[in-house]
Amino acid sequence: MKRLQRLRRTASLRDLCAETSFGAAQLVQPLFLDAGLSGGRPVPGMPDIQTHGHDALLAQVDADLEAGVRQFLLFPVPARKQERLFDSAFACRAIEQIRARCGTEASLWVDTCLCSHTQSGHCCLFDAAGRQELPQTLAALAELALAYAGAGADGIAPSDMNDGRVAHLRARLDAAGHDLLPIMSYSSKFASALYGPFRVAAQSTPQQGDRRGYQLDIRSRREALAASRRCAEEGADLLMVKPGLTSIDLLAPIAADTGLPVGAFQVSGEYASLALLAREGLGEFDRLLLEALLVIRRAGASFIISYGARRARALGLH
User: Fold this and answer.
1) Is pTM beyond 0.85 here?
2) CA distance 40 to 37
3) Could you give the CA distance from residue 175 to residue 228 in angstroms, rounded to a whole number?
4) Burial level of 93, CB count in 10 A (0-12/13-18/19+)?
5) Which residues of the chain form beta strands (DSSP E)?
6) How deeply is 237 buried, as exposed, middle or buried, from its count of CB atoms within 10 A (0-12, 13-18, 19+)?
7) Assigned superfamily of 22-239
């Protein structure tokens, strides 16, 4: 009888034959910068995650770099919501100082979206009749992207899912001399129910309606593949599925279709659900987190954005 268990007998044998592995270099740690805070504020349901004021954020980055985190994704949250002329100065100040701390060993990506900036909480602009203003939306996104690029961001990450935004951002960045700045596109992002804790942290809950008019329907596979293909054709350098675990069926086909690195975002609801299991005594948090990350990696993710990235050393990832 063929004994498949022979190679599972010891830890060293299991490590020798492991088909899936990854390290801290493939993990991206989200950061929240809230211009209205002076210190930090815990995000409900998510251990180790806070929204930070400027100085507290820099202290967190210092600690993360010391712990071995090498990739960051910054979410700027302005102190005041507007519908036009969005404030990027507070984010640019932080980008400059984080960039100086990272040196050449770490990268800072900046989420590029309008949902934290607008009074509506939506990722796009609307006219007086409630109709989406796509050209104005793309122009506003480009102004934010140019500001972040000028401040020293290593890359931008458009998360809005509006039509044509990658092509528009690529053209504006190239024209401004930022042709080497990569775009990490949220290319297949679903209108999911798993974003709750994030929306508290980013203050981005829609004040009316929802985002199903521009984010992907969770029932749609072909449209999700087409969305990533379009982003690749428009000039994205990295693609991403979101939420991570509920989109893992898309990772391999998107990579095969586009030839680009494809990552996954383990979103706030996924992370918080693992924390809830641990709080209820139904599992060990680090093991739950590592299992979820390994499954996403096993499915083909080139990188993973996870709120647990800063726990990498506790998880044995180096």
Assistant:
1) yes
2) 7
3) 24
4) middle
5) 27-34, 40-42, 50-52, 71-77, 107-112, 155-158, 184-189, 238-242, 262-266, 304-306
6) middle
7) Aldolase class I (3.20.20.70)
Q: What digits encode the pLDDT tens for the residues 84-104? A: 778 899 999 999 999 999 888
* Neighbouring C-alpha atoms within 13 Å toward the C-beta of 70: 13
Distance CA 155, CA 145 (A): 9
What letter does residue 168 receive in the DSSP assignment?
H
Three-class DSSP category at 32: strand
Annotated active-site residue 81? The verdict is no
DSSP string, 145-156: HHHHHHHT-SEE
CA distance 56 to 182: 28
For 233-270, the pLDDT digits (tens) are 999 999 999 999 999 999 999 999 999 999 999 999 99
Residues 6+ apart with CB under 8 A from 136: 125
Task: Give me the catalytic one of 70, 122, 165, 242.
Answer: 242
Between strands 40-42 and 50-52, the pairing is: antiparallel
End-to-end CA distance of the chain: 38
Check whether 187 has a pLDDT greater than 70. yes
The H-assigned helical ranges of 132-262 are 134-151, 165-175, 196-202, 222-234, 251-258
CB 198 within 8 A of CB 239: no
Q: Give per-residue pLDDT as tens, 23-71.
A: 778 899 999 999 999 899 999 999 889 999 999 999 999 999 998 898 9
> What are the residue ranges spanned by the domains of the chain?
22-239
Q: Which of 189, 211, 297, 310 is catalytic?
A: 189
Residues 127, 133, 136, 137, CA torsion sign: positive
How far apart CA 206 and CA 293 sit, in angstroms, is: 29
